[in-house]
Design goal:
heterodimer, A: 258 residues, alpha/beta, Rossmann fold, six-stranded mixed sheet, four-stranded antiparallel sheet, 9 helices, 10 strands, 34% helix, B: 339 residues, mainly alpha, ABC transporter involved in vitamin B12 uptake, BtuC, two-stranded antiparallel ribbon, globular
């Protein structure tokens, strides 16, 4: 089942054509890595899907239905959650409050924005969530996000996306600025997300990470999708040469021959 | 593949005792300790400091600035501030009294007009800040000049006699009552009531969660569907209305509406708020801290005069004490981040 299908997406900024006819498909329970050099159009593509700006031309289908995404709220309502590098959490709020930001459980809902938070429910749901995602042992739902490490923050952001039963979770450079162990933690977490039935679109610079978690690789260059590879059927060198446009394996053979 | 041990969790576990010490290390707590020390010093230095008359005097002034400080705390927590509050404090009663005295309006209708005026000023501030994207410093600084200038122009610079006939509105805003030998004004009830409401909003209501999130990381809040602009606009309106309310309370209490009333209040109020521990950069706000800060600044201003600091040197001390408080908060913050 195709969870997300993009067909001929186009987006220009002035005379710069950031996206030219980008098409891709994301299936249920699949991790797809989106690779490409800086300026290849990766972030334009994910911003278009997550509703940061509208596309100029092209169609987006969610579970086979054509949709229009005009705002981040639209994307969220369609089950598309995007986790940006550092912008996903409010550091001065507790983990529990962050997890439910914008969708707070309240008592006396008729009071609107003045309604009191259901703090007991908030804390209970947050602890359950932390436990379910395997990071409950040492994290307190009341701890401020500013006291957490980068990896912990990523995990909290990802678990928040899972909690709202997102169909598609877009991870934008989730392992940037993380230490080795934290990176492994986040990658393991991505696998758990897949096992829980969510589809993941992973944007990263690090090809090694891709080979650890992804099922498929999509490579972009200059606003276009230039290749698609099944991870099980390819290798690092091949993918690297596609990204840079140079034939690395040929170069390597040449070097060996000498 | 390398063994993928789950090492996302923090290296060191948080001991149970840490939670208690985090309360003690919280900014509002250190402010409270310093307030108590200051009160003790003033009380020892001058007996009259704790006399019923002096306490009554302090309590008469306190609510007027304190009420504005409540609005300012919420606004600062959302990452914005308002420099026009002192001017609005002056303009609102001037407009109300002009409508009554020169326009022949009923006092109730004039007060309503004053309220609408404050809402309009706050809305304009908020709309320009959020929709055009100019910093609140610049927008509200300009608004300060416009509003203060308007107050001076429409009165030609002369103070107006305020409403001095007893009646419902005067009792409501500036009535007084005696408790033993202390004399309190109804404005104290306003301050207490509004403080409780503000505490509720910031700590327990959904709105408070949004306010803190917007000030802490606006993009994150917006990405979760929090209407950040609308929240900010309403906070600007609330702050303006509270400034106007405080202005009316003051005008009724002293039976005069001066176009220069409230000059410099914007800085005094911001000082109260940050001395209490609210971060100027947004995200971290405390109403309890603001109440402590309001008490502290009033006590300092009052106590310094009583212990005989020369009148002209008085601002030096106020400034130094504020600076010392801010340094203390910064050090505590740094310490907390390190541990």
């Amino acid at each position: 089942m195709d969870v997300l299908r993009l067909q001929n997406l186009q987006k220009s900024f002035g005379s710069v054509r950031a996206l030219k006819n980008a098409s891709l498909t994301l299936r249920e329970g699949e991790v797809v890595a989106l690779l490409g050099d800086n300026g290849a159009g990766k972030s334009t593509l994910i911003k278009a899907i997550s509703g940061v700006f509208p596309i100029d031309r092209g169609d987006i289908f969610v579970r086979g239905e054509k949709v229009s995404i005009r705002s981040t709220r639209d994307a969220m309502d369609l089950g598309i959650e995007t986790i940006h590098q550092d912008t996903s959490l409010a550091p001065d709020l507790s983990i529990a409050r962050n997890l439910f930001l914008g969708r707070e459980p309240v008592n006396f809902g008729w009071l609107g924005v003045f309604a009191p938070l259901d703090l007991a429910k908030l804390r209970k749901a947050a602890s359950e969530l932390l436990k379910r995602v395997g990071i409950s042992k040492k994290l307190d739902a009341d701890a401020l996000v500013s006291t957490l490490s980068g990896g912990e923050r990523q995990s909290i952001a990802i678990s928040r996306a899972m909690q709202f039963a997102a169909k598609v979770i877009i991870l934008d450079e989730p392992t940037n600025n993380l230490g080795v162990e934290e990176t492994h933690g986040v990658l393991r977490f991505v696998k758990e997300v897949r096992e829980a039935g969510h589809s993941v679109l992973l944007i990263t610079h690090n090809i090694h990470h891709v080979f650890q978690v992804a099922d498929r690789i999509i490579v972009m260059r200059r606003g276009e999708i230039v290749a698609e590879q099944i991870v099980a059927d390819t290798d690092l060198l091949t993918v690297e040469s596609i990204i840079t446009g140079a034939d690395m394996s040929a170069l390597l053979k040449e070097a060996r021959a000498k | 593949m390398v063994q993928t041990v789950m090492t996302i969790a923090a290296e060191d576990e948080m001991p149970v005792g840490k939670r208690r010490s985090s309360l003690i290390r919280s900014p509002q707590f250190s402010s409270l300790v310093i307030l108590i020390v200051l009160l003790a010093v003033f009380a020892i230095a001058d007996r009259n400091f704790l006399s019923p008359l002096n306490i009554s005097n302090m309590m008469a002034f306190l609510p007027e600035l304190g009420i504005i400080a409540l609005g300012m705390t919420l606004l600062l927590t959302a990452g914005e501030f308002d420099l026009s509050v002192g001017a609005v404090f002056g303009l609102a009663p001037v407009v109300v009294m002009l409508l009554v005295q020169n326009g022949g309006w009923d006092i109730g209708a004039a007060l309503l007009a004053g309220l609408v005026l404050c809402i309009a000023i706050g809305a304009i501030n908020g709309l320009i800040v959020t929709k055009i994207g100019i910093s609140s410093f610049l927008v509200t600084l300009s608004m300060l000049l416009v509003v203060r200038g308007a107050a001076l122009y429409i009165t030609q610079g002369f103070p107006l006699k305020s409403w001095d006939q007893p009646g419902f509105f005067v009792t409501l805003l500036a009535g007084s009552f005696n408790v033993g030998s202390f004399r309190f004004y109804t404005s104290l009830w306003w301050f207490i009531g509004l403080s409780l409401f503000a505490i509720y909003i910031l700590r327990y209501a959904k709105l408070g969660n949004w306010i803190s999130a917007i000030g802490s990381n606006r993009n994150a809040a917006v990405a979760r569907g929090v209407p950040a602009d609308a929240v900010k606009i309403w906070l600007f309106i609330a702050t303006s209305v509270l400034a106007g309310l405080a202005g009316m309370i003051s005008a009724f209490r002293i039976s005069a509406a001066s176009p220069v009333a409230g000059t410099g209040y914007e800085l005094e109020v911001i000082a109260m708020v940050v001395v209490g521990g609210t971060a100027l950069t947004g995200g971290r706000g405390t109403i309890l801290g603001t109440i402590v800060g309001a008490l502290m600044l009033r006590a300092i201003r009052n106590g310094i005069v009583l212990i005989g600091v020369p009148g002209l040197a008085y601002n030096i001390f106020v400034g130094l004490i504020i600076l010392a408080m801010l340094i203390l908060h910064a050090l505590l913050q740094k310490n907390a981040a390190r541990s």
